[in-house]
Amino acid sequence: MNLSKRIEALVYLGGILQLKEDELIATQQMSKSKNNWFTLENSDRALKNIITNFLQNEKLEAWAEQYKIPEISPQKNIGIIMSAGFPLAGFHDLLCTFISGHHAKIKLSAEDKFLIPYCIKVMKSEFPEVDNYFSFVERMTDFDAIIANGTRDSIKVFETYFSKFPNIIRKNKFGIAVLDGKESKEDLAKLGEDIFHYFGLSSRNISKIYIPRNYDFVPLMEATHEFNNIVLTNKYKNNFDFNYTLQIINKMDYKANGCIMIIEDETLQSRVAMLHYEIYPDENHLKNLLKEKSSEIQHVISNNTFTNFKNKNFGAANVIELNDYENGIDVMDFLKKLN
């Protein structure tokens, strides 16, 4: 397949996904039964982002042109070890590999085994040549380069095992928000989306906020309480209850509104149903705090702009564009250089 045909196959996929046919709904149900975090709402959210921001002809053509992807290019075997923080989390890596003309050898996460194969099946139904670009493996062998996502422990293994190959091995990064106390109700409502969508399990979710001294938490607590239906999901409710009990037993200070607990903590990573905060007394102190954690920060949500960081507006934490690469690592550039 040449580049134009590959783009045509992707646009076709977007059209079929938008129809929301019975087979897709059944696949979403199977995904949910395997992983309770993958609610229909969350898989719909991931699908909507893919359809709107990834699978549009004009966007795909402009993106490929940006990297001067030729119509025909040599094919390498690219191993992709997928994560499952949210539904279809590995789709962007798969998309980059396909557009670049390479063959994706995919090791699916045990928690997300249905949606990716469904997408490839849809493309193959209309474009049989797609079969030459994807394969699913249980053991990663015979590859030219690797893209890997994993836990803190598995990353160490990946770095050892794949060190001799061209690789992208993503370490944990986290989304943060910087507030100044002047945020509108709409800003805080959208911040709630950044915190709660995908139950906070995406690396792009906001897990920590930086706030000025004497910050008034009441508007934030009211805004986040609007998401209280999230506790209807048992796994989330169990995490909230565990965190609540832990704070009480340890006699630690916290703020809670029935769907999230907010505690003061210097670390960026927070547990499910928790949000960390840290106080900055002035702008210079804030600048130093962010500099110290820069290697762990995915992006910054704020009404202000911060140099040397990816800045996003409130509500956009999990709105992913083609050029919005996880951890800021340009996958397309990496794949292009293999040739």
Summary of the model, kept short:
The protein has 339 residues and is an alpha/beta fold. Helices cover 41% and strands 16% of the residues.
Describe the model:
It is built from 12 helices and 12 strands. The radius of gyration is 21 Å and the shape is globular. The protein folds into 2 domains: 3-171, Aldehyde Dehydrogenase, Chain A, domain 1 (3-Layer(aba) Sandwich), CATH 3.40.605; 174-312, Aldehyde Dehydrogenase, Chain A, domain 2 (3-Layer(aba) Sandwich). Helices cover 41% and strands 16% of the residues. The model has no long low-confidence stretch (mean pLDDT 96). By secondary structure, it is of the alpha/beta class. Helix 1 (3-19) runs antiparallel to helix 3 (40-54), helix 1 crosses helix 6 (115-126) and helix 8 crosses helix 9. Strand 4, helix 7 and strand 5 form a beta-alpha-beta unit. Strands 8-9-10-7-6-11-12 form a 7-stranded mixed sheet, with helices on both faces. The two termini are 17 Å apart.
Helix-strand blueprint:
Layout: H1 3-19, H2 22-34, H3 40-54, H4 57-66, E1 77-81, H5 91-99, E2 103-107, H6 115-126, E3 134-136, E4 145-149, H7 152-161, E5 167-170, E6 174-178, H8 185-196, E7 206-212, H9 218-225, H10 234-249, E8 255-256, E9 261-264, E10 274-280, H11 283-292, E11 297-301, E12 311-312, H12 331-337
Parallel strand pairs: 1-2, 1-4, 2-3, 4-5, 6-7, 6-11, 7-10, 9-10, 11-12
Antiparallel strand pairs: 8-9
